[in-house]
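WARN retry 2 of 3 for item q-0093 after timeout on previous attempt; input resubmitted unchanged.
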Amino acid sequence: MRYFYFIFFAGILHFFSAAQDIPVLRLELNARMSEDTYTLIPCQEQGVVVFYEGNIVSDGMRNLHFALFGQQLEEVWIKDTLLDDGYKYVDYFQDGEELMLLFHIESRKGKDDNNLQILSIGLKNSRIKLLNATIPEKSKIGGFAVNNGNAVISFTEKKYQAGLAFVNLYSGDFLIQPIEIQGQNVAGIIVVDSLNPYLYVMVYSFESKKQSKAYVVKIGTEGMIYEIMEINPVLEDKFINYAFPVPEGNDLYVVGTYSWFPNELVSDNEDNFPESAGCFMAKFRDGKQVFINFYNFLEFENLYKSMDGRDVIRIRKKAEKQKKRGEEVSLDYKVLLHPVMKVQNEFILACEAFYPEYRTVTDMYYDYYGRMVPQTYTVFDGYKYFAGIVVSFDKNGNLLWDNEMALWDLQTFDLEQYLQIHHDGEDNLIFYNKNGKIEYMIFDGNETIVDNEDLELKLKYDNDRLLNDARSKIVHWYDNFFLCYGYQEVRNNKLSGNRRMVFYVNKIALQ
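OK item q-0093 returned
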């Protein structure tokens, strides 16, 4: 059996012991628990960038404050820059020693105003360059990537037409290229081919507001569309929900989730996450689909930890009966997909299953005659994460193994990735950061080695006590190092000002 050690610099915590006498490597910045002020970007070996928005200074310009911290979380440089007020941070992409940040404003102030801004930051010299571009007004960003000196942004216009914006990072020139697919289309993730000068964009097509098809669009960084490949489910009642392209030499694999009913094209104020029946894997060669394989969640061996055992038995019996009648039953999970992780000849797909949580509120009001009348309504209370699902495929699309981690007390208003998957060459580790602890599971394929254990994150000083924790996450940094970060309220009765509210960053390692 393998054992993992979480190293909290320089204290070490593992399954049975804790080193309490060595100070932790931890960064703290003043913050308010109620405000999500800071944005953290891991920049591999170059360090970690933290930035926040400042005040409006003049002429509708707002200050942005950046800081780069090194591998020991020491301050490397601090830099301020100005950005037009109203722009919202969308995404980042690191290209070697350059960090590109994408900002977008849906509505322009005037006809000739831009609505995309890209900040290019030199991680070594703190040089900041601003580039502008324009996409159709009220468009939604689907993906952002950088390759061969060009930034590429996928977007969906307000009338549901997909397009691409190409921005030259040297000259600042930009080009808009529509993706001409019949019907209403939504642009998704962009994936860079690390071996060839291509990128791949997911596009989902709808007819009469019902999903009909899914495509992978092969593009070049100069703005040319080389190929539009349709993912053909072949079988009836199979519809692609979300997917990630995975370039592999001359082949292209597509891995994601599917449902057995078409998804609806909904407005922004509606829940637009479709329910998934299972996972699929497809392969393309020379632009043609070689195979596509589907696997219902109920076929998985380990899908029981987040459910009552009797429910699993009942559902599987029902599934067997319906299968004999040529029908299909499924769990219909809403899932948040992770990018596909390639480990040797395996394609590992992870996703987090969730459901929207509501609570009932009853208020009293007086009618015309002064009588008290109850009024009951439901209030959205966030997304409840309840399971982390991990599956592995081989190059022929065969399901090699599956596993699941039950998630406890993980509820948020932001649909973001909380789970992390790590492979050390032999075993796999799945874990997340919550309430000052790392919850984790160790497994080898279908075999669970350690199930739902937790380790407490060290705080900065002796006698620190955690009072409150909010929006905490864990992200991969570089090699086997990770960053835990979020907002905490901490009390220490032996310090002046015994209570502090901070944005914290802890460095940890897995060994």
